Amino acid sequence: MISEPSQRATSHNLIHYLDRWAIEAPERPAIVTPVDLAASSHRVVRFQELATEVGSLAAGLRRRGLRPGDRVVVMVPMSAELYTLILALLKIGAITVFVDPWVGLARLLSCIRLVEPAAFAGPWIVQALASGFAEFRGIKTRLISSKRGWGRLVDPGQANRPEIPETSPVSPDDTALITFTTGSSGAPKGADRTHGFLDAQHQALCAEMKIQAGDVAMPALPIFILSNLAAGATSVIPAMRPSRPSAVDPDAILRQIRAFGVTSLVGSPAFFAPVCRRLREEQSVLAGVRSVFTGGAAVPPDLMRDLADLLPDGDAFIGYGSTEAEPVALISAREVLAETGARTARGEGDCVGRPAHGIELKILRASAGPVVDPDWAQLELPAGQIGEVVVSGRQVNRNYFRNEEAVRLNKIREPSGQIWHRMGDLGYRDERGRLWIVGRMHNCVNRSGTVLYPGIVEALAQAEPWVERAALVGLPDRELGQRAVVAVVPAAAPRIETLRTKLADHGILVDEVILQRRIPVDPRHNAKVDYDRLARSLSR
Known about the structure:
By secondary structure, this protein is of the alpha/beta class. It has 3 domains: 192 residues, 3-Layer(aba) Sandwich (Rossmann fold), CATH 3.40.50.12780; 203 residues, Rossmann fold (3-Layer(aba) Sandwich), CATH 3.40.50.12780; 96 residues, GMP Synthetase, Chain A, domain 3 (2-Layer Sandwich). It is built from 18 helices and 25 strands. Strands 1, 2, 9, 10, 11, 12, 13, 14, 15, 16, 17, 18, 19 and 20 form a 14-stranded mixed β-sheet that branches. Strands 6-5-3-4-7-8 form a 6-stranded mixed β-sheet, sandwiched between helices. β24, α17 and β25 form a beta-alpha-beta unit. α10 crosses α11 and α12 packs antiparallel against α13. The radius of gyration is 24 Å and the shape is globular.
């Protein structure tokens, strides 16, 4: 009577997918990790080997006193060691608190204060730097990562011993991961990803990306590897610094793609730009690659054109989503090039396609405060009207860790219990049900009562041949409320008055166009404009 509910609960744990592939495809590569940034050689971990290492590490973690529900801060870059640890924590029912390896010490300590972890896992240099702070000294268990794995925690003979723990029973609502938002709409928030959320996200990604057992994927974003492992696909970790996808060596990436027969790639626009440039120089293509997925920021039309042209055997897609909801919508490069890209250049916003598998989507009248007891008839806008984007679905998280205020502001709860997430973006649905994004709510500029949308202004500016990149910011002004300033990185001789006239023809009055050598971007994708940093720079 007791075992049946336990089996039902355990089935929600992603680890059971690994157990399956360890039996059905034990010799298939699970994770391929480059030993250096030149991708001169690689370490290949096969599914059975991975399952054995996960079981051994789980036993080691249990010996160190970790128990179900314990929170473990993990600050480890993409590697076989990272996923061995995450899977081992899933196996014992502990919670991974993932912190990007590039965050500063202040952000790390803030995370530790919030989650009060039972353990910390990361490189020795970070632990040495943090050891003088009270927050860090309170952590009893510390795990040091290295290229040799997890040291004495992993006993190669442990796999055949009876003390290897059984997979801890979990329910769909139990927390599996806590990951932090980028902070583009305020202070970073810890998104609570439950076991049910991870499973739903995996199912949605498989449905949209068509990842199948035996495929070879190259994901430049960490979360996708978990889904690949669950699907029985091989993940080739790209040779890159996690904090600098824009500085990737395209020769190393192409060497990996060709050596391992990569069929699918995921990365930010900044990751793909140098790869496409090198392929153009070589006059070659990505033969055998079936699909490329990019997103995290607006994708330049030239990059979409390159990706479409360089994939003779497949297609490229723009994905739209966030830390709290992924995937939300997708559109193919061919659809962008055939129709929507031209409309973007005319100032209609960025089309990100139709809602993804399992997603419900609404456009609501924009509101700065919380939305309680929603009256959809009053709130929801018809097609063509700009409003706030909200989504619901199983791959949409319901909570933030220890942050009720963030839940109150970012979630809408229906009386039925259904949760809607406020994406923080403004957009509209077109006549075919596709979603168009015009900018983040907090980045819009209110100039004398007229709202200017960054996605529209920037696209109009970037359609000019002399503009490499543009960003709209609002600077405080006593009379106007906000001055509308367009920062521009020129690619040729500037024609500022021509740009101002073009914007005025679209009813957009800007107070200044300022030339810049570069526009600051986010550290995670190297693609999303960091509007706060830019505004501070321009104010100075």
